[in-house]
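S1.2 Input.
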Amino acid sequence: MSQNALVVIDVQNDFCPGGALAVAGGDAIVPLVNRLITSFDHVVLTQDWHPAGHSSFASSHDGRRPFETIAMPYGAQTLWPDHCMQGTSGADFHPSLDWTRAELVIRKGFRAGIDSYSAFFENDRATPTGLAGYLRERGIADLTLVGLATDYCVAFSAIDAARLGFGVTVRLEACRAIDLGGSLDRALASMREVGVGLE
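S1.3 Output.
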């Protein structure tokens, strides 16, 4: 069996056009992601999975608006519109995503007091999701990442994977970015800095 895995990041309704935190063109990647899914022996999906009233929601902070930044005990936190709430249609995978071949779905952001962009760690950069251990036990050494959004959950996941010793490639044509105030360029530079391959 292959030592390579495809990690599909947060291809969920709320991150696609019409969703609560829509990424421009987010749904346009689905056909390519589906083609990639068929070409990998191992597929892992991540799913943003917030409880109502999550601390990363602007609505949880009086007088705050989405996309403002506040200080949290674990560092700076961008405040988001309420999105991907547990059990809602917004948290569901995009209806055209062929997700049934996934061996594992990692849910993240379910702890009310801390956000989680990365597939590997909460935003405190210390609390693990368990994904690294799963991949290592399966003998998987190289990862290809696709999904939403390039400059947040994809980039954080790719950087963590590289730091954990995995070979990492991000297929940019199968990603889309939010790009808040230059966040895409910063994310691309940060990924290159730790050796992530960008294709």
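S1.4 Remarks. The mean pLDDT is 96.
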